[in-house]
């Protein structure tokens, strides 16, 4: 099996419906064959309760230029959700902040075949986005997001749309 160091391509754990590891596979194969894999999303709130929303870069292979979580990414082969989340927060928007587990959603079409763990954090630190990953960052109130989601759901990546809908129904105010 080739790995990221050899091919330059990320390698993920391919998992079953119960999130048990079956094997490792390259990102391109996982996405092309719609294999179940793992991802994390982070909802970053400021002290006013606004959620930082990322607009994905135009170069993303899935859902370019759509709104998504403050930071998100695939869990690498052999990596845990807990290790992946702070790494993604740092890589995508240059921040370190304590993360709280919110929910784990099962893999399916609405989550892009990803078992998805959502974390939440609150900080007023200034993000520094990675321009290869992020087209723009904007703070929205949850009510503004609810309205935008109703007006134009296609502007949101399917996993983010699913997480927002779950959060609206089940989430609590940020701490």
Explained architecture:
The chain has about 180 residues and is of the alpha+beta class. Helix content is about 25%, strand content about 30%. It has helices at about 5, 25-30, 80-95, 140-150, 160-170, and strands at about 10-15, 20-25, 35-45, 50-55, 65-70, 70-75, 100-105, 115-120, 135-140. It has a 4-stranded mixed β-sheet with strand order 6-3-8-7, sandwiched between helices. The radius of gyration is 15 Å and the shape is globular.
Largest sheet: 4 strands, mixed
Oligomer: single chain
- Shape designation: globular
CA radius of gyration? 15 Å
- Work out the helicity level: 25-40%
Number of strands: 9
- Specify the structural class: alpha+beta
First and last CA, distance: 44 Å
Low-confidence stretches: none
Portion in strands: 25-35%
What is the topology, as strand order, of the major beta sheet? Answer: 6-3-8-7
> What order do the helices and strands follow?
HEEHEEEEHEEEHH
Topology diagram in text:
Elements: H1 4-7, E1 11-15, E2 21-26, H2 27-32, E3 37-45, E4 51-56, E5 67-68, E6 71-74, H3 81-93, E7 100-105, E8 114-122, E9 134-140, H4 142-151, H5 158-170
Parallel strand pairs: 3-8
Antiparallel strand pairs: 1-2, 3-6, 4-5, 4-9, 7-8
């Amino acid at each position: 099996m080739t790995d990221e160091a050899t091919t330059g391509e990320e390698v993920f754990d391919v998992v079953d419906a119960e999130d048990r590891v079956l094997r490792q596979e390259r990102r391109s194969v996982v996405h092309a064959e719609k294999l179940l894999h793992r991802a994390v999303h982070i909802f970053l709130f400021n002290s006013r309760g606004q959620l930082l929303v990322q607009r994905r870069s135009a170069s993303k292979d899935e859902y370019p230029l759509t709104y998504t979580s403050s930071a998100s990414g695939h869990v690498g082969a052999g990596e845990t959700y807990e290790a992946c989340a702070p790494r993604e927060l740092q890589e995508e928007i240059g921040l370190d902040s304590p993360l709280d587990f919110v929910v784990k959603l099962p893999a399916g079409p609405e989550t892009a075949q990803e078992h998805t763990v959502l974390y939440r954090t609150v900080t007023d630190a200034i993000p520094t986005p990675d321009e290869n990953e992020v087209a723009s960052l904007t703070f929205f109130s949850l009510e503004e997001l609810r309205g935008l989601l109703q007006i134009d759901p296609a502007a949101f990546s399917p996993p983010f749309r699913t997480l927002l809908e779950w959060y609206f129904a089940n989430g609590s105010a940020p701490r």
